Each structure stands twice: as structure tokens, then as C-alpha cells.
């Protein structure tokens, strides 16, 4: 090959690379008009999905302006508010009642008014409290109404409020100015404290009884991946007073020993009575906890591509993919959620959303042993992290920005908070190779649409996926990555985890994830049916002397909430599906099967004083009657007062009839179509289910799930 040919080939290669880069950069922008011809579903859509849409930055600004003018009280910026101030904690969309939405979507009724839900902290009132207002109509509000008592049966006490970032900053200032200076020798010689080399992680819940606001703060080296660098010091702070000067230390823990406060630790240390475990100071990149690559990449990773462009389209908050269409949104508290999911134009799910992510820890250190994180309280949607092209999602994915207003007076934009992509699953949807009698092969490529967000709550990164398969199945899936939480290794620590570094104990813990699935299969009035298999002993028709054990199908209608609530260690029927009165051409009831892929073990003993706050985790699956006054399986206020829970899911299950009703399900798994029914697959953790006046709310469940249709 001569030099001229080589140069030509190199130029062609560079041109190809340049063209590919241009394509990828173009796709990196927010979703634009679809390149393919609009489908009938797209042409028929007239903005109905906007009834579920998140608030725009303009709407959020209008709500804030209205509240500042109309409430008649000064509102501080939550980013700098003291506990004794009034402030706006968050503003989110207030979804209309389901009955109103269905009249609008299906019966040509009026569009429901667009409203916002504003959560305010009133620390400057005679009786400090948390109040929730519905504000509307948008975009030009003229009214607000207090819905707190209607939703929760009473006012929300102030001590139940989730902590604002401002409160954590005030705690950090308290440590720097009051706590650490009380033990100067210990902090200098043992902690080598320089004012910036320690990071604190909060435990939760805060205290041991209703009304407490006492928090264990666990100290770590302030380096990359600090979650794996505990230093052995933990401090219990009482920050219940609205007067910052009244905050106090209630207890101190260091290397297996407890002290009344930092002054006592200092005195005993100076006397030589403290057993010191000197922790080697880590480099700023964290050494073993660094996220830097350990070795150069040997070869380029496999990539996927779309030969003719994406086969899905996005219009505002509406996604259309082959036979599927659905609306999407992002809740500040619970993260990604989907509405009005249709297959071939027929609604199969009204709402599918995450409700809660729970972690229960064990340790021989106080912060670890007392931790029961309920991540919605911190904000699953609030902490959605920007997605990185080619790592968090494929290069060819479409990325969507979101806008939220929390803990401030203006909205914030989260770049690339969601991604949407079609994925080749690498295995056939169906295939057969015949080598008996006739020779032939038939197969179909298996691909699915994935809608993804990733939430970073403290040390954990949760990868949330809703997956739509070509065969009518829907899957809800979560993966956990990031860093494990750790405790300082001392004493009998190996009873509570594994040692992962010199002074680091990777602590035992559980993960429970709760989903809500409001199934409307064929119509809003569904029934729950359990199919299983039993063996019957029968005489062989061709030989009366021969017995045969043959499996047969058993069927049972689950008519009440008690029958449809499956405890963690109970036996579940092999097949559970939501059935409609409509039948297919073979006479089978149409429906969706619910399939649990994985679920966790025990959440916490029911005898525990805080168990009712997380009572949804008692169940692998629970199906309840749908009620507007039971919209969620938990509350953000449960974290800081689990002893008197604002919402207790167990109260929803009171043996009401669910047959031929609209059911709501609470769980984690997969929905999959089945011949007599559809299947809903659910997976890793536990979930639970619910039911309302208009029907059954598929499930409340824990874990990973999937569903499908017949």
C-alpha cells in the first residue's frame, strides 16, 4: 500500500470519527423533535399528559411569590434559615384526584386545575409546626388552602420536620465552635484536627422517643470516599431547641467507650485513661476508597448504536415507544414516577412510583446500631444526580433536565437527571431451532425501553429503572452502588459485619424498597386472582390398575385486603394477577400477573416501638382498596418521629373488600402479560399494595418487580 493510499484512508477515518462525534453531541442535547414519522398515538396526543407534568421554573416562581405576599408572615430563605424562622421547605406539583383525571382523559371532562403543594416550616409561630398548602390555580395563583389536617389527621409537630441543609451547617458550626474546643488536647493529638480534616455523617432517627431531636454524628476523615474512613469518634447532639445557643452534647463515644461530654473525654485523656487507636491519616484521594481507575483501560468498551435513529419519541413529559405510551415526572421526595401507562392505546397502569428506600443497620458503635434510614425524608428526587453519558447511560440515550424547588426561594435545574434509551438485551425474545421432522429457525430480537434516574443519598447511589418490554411486560428495578456505610472497628465488631480496612468495619444492613403500582387493567374495576398448582391422584384412563399423579390448576379469588396482604415469611401462590371482567377470544380473563423477582428478609421486629412507621416492609406484596386519602405508604415525617408515625401503612389493611374494585399495589418487581392475564415483575427488596374507591391499587411491594399482560 503506497503512502497516498494510507493518507486517504486516514483522512476518511478522521472524517468518520468527526461525524460520529457530531452525532453524539447532537444527541446530548435535551430531547428534540423525533426524527421518525409520528405514530397514530403521537398525532392523537393533545397534551393530555401535561395533567401529570412537573412544575416549570415559571410556575415555581409564581408559587413562591404568591406565598410571600399572601401568607402574611415573613419567609426566610431556607438555605440560611434558623430553626426559629418561617421558610418554604419545598414546592412540588399537586396531582389532581384520580377521578377528576379519568373524567378528563377518558370522558371529555374539564381539565383539572393545575395546583402546587407547598411545604412550609413555621418556626416563628407560638406553636411551631409544619404546614402543607395547596396553591392554585397555576400559572397565576389566587388561592391557597391548608391540607395538613385533611392529610394527616392533625398538625405536623415541628420536631418531625426533615432537617434542612441549613440545620446541618448550623450543626457543623456548633461542632467547630463549641464541641471540639472542649477537648483541645484530644482533638489535636488523637484526631490531628486542623479545622477541616473531619467530616460528619448523621444517623437517624433522632432519639428514642417522640419529641426527641437528638442525633448521633459519626466522624470520618474528610477525604474522597470518607464513608470508609471512620476515626472512632461519635457525638450525640441535642439540637431540639429553636435557640441555637441551647444546643448541647448529650454523650460522646470513642473507641468502644462512652463519655458524658467532650470535657470528660478530654479530662480522662489527659490523665491517660483513654485507650487510643491512632488512625493513619489518609491521602486526600482516600487511598483505597478513591474512585480513580486502578489500571488503564485495555480496550474500548462495547457500544450500542441505533442504525436509523431512536425508535421512541419524547414530547414534553410524554414518551412513546412502539405500543407503549406514558407520562413521566420527578417527585422531590420519592423520585421518578410514571403515569397513564398504555399498551396499544389501552391504559394498564395509572401510576407507578417509588415510595420509600429503607436501610436498617447493625453495629457495635452507637451511630451504626441506631440507624434506620428512610431516604424519602432526605429526598430521593432532590438528590437525583446528573447522569454521565457512556457510563450512567449509553451514549445514544436521550437526557432530560428537571427543575425542583426545595430549601430555597428559587428553583434549581438538575441537568440530565433522567435518561431514556432502548437497549438490546442480548438474548432472544423468543426463538426455536427445529431439527425434528422439519428444519427451520425462527427468532425475534429482544429489546426494551429503559427510563432511568440515579439518586445519591449520602453514601449510596441508587440506579432506578422502569423497563418496558415488547411483549407487554413492565419491570421496576433498582441497583445500589456507591459506598457502603461503615463503623469504627473495635471489640466484637465482627459480629456486626466484615473488616474491610485496618480500622473500618463494613456493617451489616438491609435494603428495602417500596413501590406503588395502581393497575387499571382493561378498566378501573379489577379483581385479584391467585393461581397455583396441586397434584391429584387419578386412575389412568387407559389402565384402571395404574395410578398417575397429575398436576392441575387451582384458582382462588382474593376478595379482601387481609387475603391480599402477603407477609414476608408466608407462602405466596405461584401466580397472582389482576383480572378484569373482560375476556380474550379464548374466554380467559384479561389481566396482569405480578411477579416478585427478589425481596429482603426481616425489616425490624414488629414489637419495636418504631416498626409501625415502616410497616409496609412487613409484606412481600399487599393489595388494598384505593382511596384518595391513602396516597402514599409512608411519610417524610416518619423518619424523625417513627414512634408516632404520621402515616402507618398497616392501618390501610383493614379487611375491606377488593373484588371488582380498583386496586393499588405496593411492591417492587415486574409486571408481565400472561395468557389469561398480564404479568407484573417485582424484585429486590419488599413491596406492598393498595386499593381505592375507583378500584384496586395494584400493590405496595418491596424489592424488584415486573409485570406483563395476556
Automatic annotation (TrEMBL):
Its EC number is 1.4.3.-. One of its GO terms (molecular function) is quinone binding. The active site is at 375 (proton acceptor), 460 (schiff-base intermediate with substrate). Pfam families: Cu_amine_oxid, Cu_amine_oxidN2, Cu_amine_oxidN3. PROSITE patterns: COPPER_AMINE_OXID_1. Residues 74-143 form the Copper amine oxidase N2-terminal domain. Residues 1-19 form the signal peptide. Residues 162-256 form the Copper amine oxidase N3-terminal domain. The keyword Transport does not apply. Topaquinone (TPQ) is generated by copper-dependent autoxidation of a specific tyrosyl residue. It is an enzyme of class 1 (oxidoreductase). The modification 2',4',5'-topaquinone is found at residue 460. Contains 1 topaquinone per subunit. Keywords: Copper, Metal-binding, Oxidoreductase, Signal, TPQ. One of its GO terms (biological process) is amine metabolic process. Its cofactor is Cu cation. Residues 304-661 form the Copper amine oxidase catalytic domain. GO terms for cellular component: plasma membrane. Belongs to the copper/topaquinone oxidase family. This is Amine oxidase. It comes from Chrysolophus pictus. The lineage of its organism: Eukaryota, Metazoa, Chordata, Craniata, Vertebrata.
